[in-house]
């Protein structure tokens, strides 16, 4: 009792600098550890394993450093020795407890998982603390306060569970602060409560033997420095990953909102912009226009030049559209050859100017390798809120106007007007009626006889499509075809006509043929020849009794494919006829309609006139046609005397070619290759000498 009467319970005194360093590590470590735990919950696979390692290292190191530095900051009045084995063991405990706690909280997601993980985390901190205190060997008796020891463990477990629970919720600035403070409370609360539970019984002789804390201070700052480096590495990893994630998100967002080929905004981006413009217009009382844009010759370019050429057209137009945009203007690609624009305006002249700039961009030639194409386009305009008071109706009415421009041969720009609604409704209704008529067998074929003029003998019949509408009466065949094309029924309709005509003709006299008109879409379809074969086999009709009729327009749309189809049909034995020859869309019509003063026979034809009878006959026909139309005819590419003789004998007006004269830098008399002047036997006149009218 005498000894105990002389003892003194020392007051706790800490080095302020080392203690401040320990608290700094604690706060920084708690923040980065909880952020890393959040990242663990957000990832999977190998990436999650990497974040597990980082979170474990950061958590274990900052908890152990906080305890170790704070313990070294403690000024003890007795001699102190550190047990290296137990000190290392205290760190090992945390290296096991932190990953186990995080795994339980993440895998058993929810309050139960966080409570279990918090218990492991808190018990790990407690074990680390009290093993560390056991390593802190004093040359004086130590008394422990049991209730405070229990309280320290409960503080560690409770605050750890709260920290994990908060860390697995959606991250925001407030949540980050709460999570950090909870984990700081777990670590610092357990440590200082545990330190308060320890009482050094300092005797007078111990007071005289107080140790020098200088070495402990140096060791403490070294540990803090090393741990800070580890935490900074963890922060750097987190920041780099966050930056990469943000960049990836922005790139994915850009890709999701942009057209992959042209880089223009896509349909999603357009819809978002449109809603913003509607909100702005409603708020500020402004107007804006939606402009629908559809390319006129894109399919033709794709068919004749290939998809690579089509892509060049789209990207070139996208660049032009982007270059002409000003404030309040927007252009997007919806897909295929469809573009759409927005123009914010309160001035109709401004709107007209923007639309005209778009039209100029469409009509400018586009160079593609060694040739040039011009796409052109149809433009439809609708204004908010004049033409519509909601975005869906506005787009629909811009489409109506664009469709009207597409079907109007004289206007490529069309502004919405109320009458278009009724027209479009009627058109769509008629298209639906056509589908119903096809499904219910309301269409029919009439057959117009074809005879041999000299004898009157029947040679065949042409199948003509008829539709008797129950309300509108007879619908003209061109309108039927146009409706079928608009509604996507043109292929199905063509197959029905071919099948019906072949079946009917199979029952006629064997010398009588049937002629069937085919649309360009049907004839140029890859499986058209197969469809013809199937119908001939099904009906039993002989191939030479079927005549497929096509127009010049079909051939001009894709000459290479049309020729391949024609050759395949000829190989089957099917006949081919050129329909509407000399009509309003044919080359012959141009000769009549345009004031040409001269026809120039192509060199490729003249090269064959003295070796190919068919070529010679074509030249005679052209010369006869020139005389009938009173147009001078010039033969190009005359290089041999044989070619010259044919041209001269058939009465060609003018000639051109190496035989007559080579190109010269200055206009001069042509140098000829033979004796005399071959041109003397040909009428060298700039215009024909017309005879009297008959």
TrEMBL record:
Domain GGDEF: residue ranges: 286-418
* Top-rank taxon, per record: Bacteria
Establish whether keyword Transmembrane helix is in the entry: yes
SUPFAM superfamilies assigned:
EAL domain-like (SSF141868), Nucleotide cyclase (SSF55073)
InterPro entries referenced in this protein's UniProt entry, alphabetically: Biofilm_reg_signaling, EAL_dom, EAL_sf, GGDEF_dom, MHYT_dom, Nucleotide_cyclase, Rev_trsase/Diguanyl_cyclase
Write the record's keywords in alphabetical order, separated by commas.
Membrane, Transmembrane, Transmembrane helix
Q: CDD domains in the record, alphabetically?
A: EAL (cd01948), GGDEF (cd01949)
EAL domain mapped to chain residues: 427-677
Which residue range or ranges hold the MHYT domain? 14-201
Annotated source species: Komagataeibacter melomenusus
| Entry's transmembrane regions | 17-37, 49-69, 89-109, 116-136, 148-168, 180-202, 214-240
Question: What name has this protein been given in UniProt?
Answer: EAL domain-containing protein
- Where does the signal sequence lie? none
């Amino acid at each position: 009792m005498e000894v105990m009467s002389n003892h003194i319970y020392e007051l706790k005194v800490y080095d302020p600098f080392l203690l401040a360093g320990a608290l700094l590590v604690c706060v920084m470590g708690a923040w980065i550890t909880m952020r890393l735990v959040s990242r663990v919950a957000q990832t999977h696979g190998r990436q999650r394993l990497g974040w597990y390692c980082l979170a474990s290292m950061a958590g274990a190191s900052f908890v152990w450093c906080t305890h170790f530095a704070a313990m070294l900051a403690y000024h003890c009045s007795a001699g102190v020795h550190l047990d290296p084995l137990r000190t290392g063991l205290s760190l090992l405990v945390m290296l096991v407890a932190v990953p186990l706690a995080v795994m339980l909280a993440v895998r058993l997601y929810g309050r139960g998982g966080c409570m279990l993980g918090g218990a492991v985390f808190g018990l790990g901190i407690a074990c680390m603390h009290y093993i560390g205190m056991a390593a802190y060997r004093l040359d004086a008796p130590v008394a422990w306060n049991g209730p405070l020891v229990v309280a320290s463990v409960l503080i560690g477990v409770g605050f750890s569970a709260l920290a994990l629970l908060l860390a697995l919720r959606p991250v925001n600035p407030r949540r980050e602060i709460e999570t950090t403070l909870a984990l700081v409370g777990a670590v610092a609360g357990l440590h200082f409560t545990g330190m308060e539970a320890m009482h050094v019984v300092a005797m007078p002789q111990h007071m005289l033997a107080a140790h020098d804390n200088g070495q402990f201070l140096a060791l403490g700052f070294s540990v803090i420095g090393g741990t800070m480096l580890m935490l900074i590495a963890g922060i750097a990893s987190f920041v780099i990953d966050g930056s990469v994630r943000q960049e990836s998100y922005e790139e994915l967002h850009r890709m999701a909102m942009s057209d992959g080929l042209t880089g223009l905004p896509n349909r999603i981006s357009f819809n978002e912009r449109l809603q913003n413009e509607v909100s702005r217009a409603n708020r500020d009382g402004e107007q804006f226009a939606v402009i629908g844009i559809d390319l006129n010759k894109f399919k033709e370019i794709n068919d004749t030049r290939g998809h690579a050429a089509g892509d060049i057209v789209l990207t070139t137009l996208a660049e032009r559209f982007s270059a002409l945009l000003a404030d309040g203007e927007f252009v997007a690609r919806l897909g295929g050859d469809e573009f759409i624009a927005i123009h914010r305006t309160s001035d109709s002249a401004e709107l007209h100017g923007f639309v005209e700039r778009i039209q100029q961009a469409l009509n400018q030639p586009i160079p593609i390798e060694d040739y040039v194409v011009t796409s052109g386009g149809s433009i439809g305009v609708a204004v908010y809120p004049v033409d519509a008071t909601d975005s869906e109706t506005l787009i629909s009415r811009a489409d109506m106007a664009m469709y009207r421009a597409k079907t109007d041969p004289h206007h490529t720009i069309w502004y919405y007007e109320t009458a278009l609604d009724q027209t479009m409704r009627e058109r769509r209704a008629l298209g639906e009626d056509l589908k119903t008529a096809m499904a219910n067998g309301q269409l029919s074929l009439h057959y117009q006889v074809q005879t041999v003029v000299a004898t009157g003998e029947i040679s065949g019949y042409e199948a003509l499509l008829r539709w008797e509408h129950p309300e509108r009466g007879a619908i003209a065949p061109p309108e039927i075809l146009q409706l079928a094309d608009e509604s996507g029924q043109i292929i199905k309709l063509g197959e029905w006509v071919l099948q019906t005509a072949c079946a009917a003709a199979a029952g006629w006299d064997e010398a009588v043929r049937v002629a069937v008109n085919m649309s360009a879409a049907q004839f140029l379809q890859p499986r058209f020849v197969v469809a013809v074969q199937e119908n001939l086999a099904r009906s039993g009709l002989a191939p030479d009794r079927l005549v497929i009729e096509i127009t010049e327009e079909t051939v001009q749309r894709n000459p290479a494919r049309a020729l391949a189809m024609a050759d395949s049909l000829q190989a089957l034995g099917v006949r081919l006829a050129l329909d509407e020859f000399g009509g309003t869309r044919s080359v012959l019509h141009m000769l009549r309609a345009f004031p040409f003063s001269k026809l120039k026979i192509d060199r490729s034809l003249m090269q064959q006139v003295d070796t190919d009878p068919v070529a010679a006959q074509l030249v005679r026909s052209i010369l006869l046609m020139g005389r009938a139309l009173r147009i001078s005819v010039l033969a190009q590419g005359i290089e041999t005397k044989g070619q010259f003789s044919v041209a001269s004998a058939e009465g060609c007006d003018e000639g051109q070619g190496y035989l007559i004269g080579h190109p010269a830098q200055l206009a001069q008399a042509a140098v000829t290759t033979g004796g005399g002047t071959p041109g003397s036997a040909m009428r060298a006149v700039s215009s024909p000498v017309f005879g009297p009218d008959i």
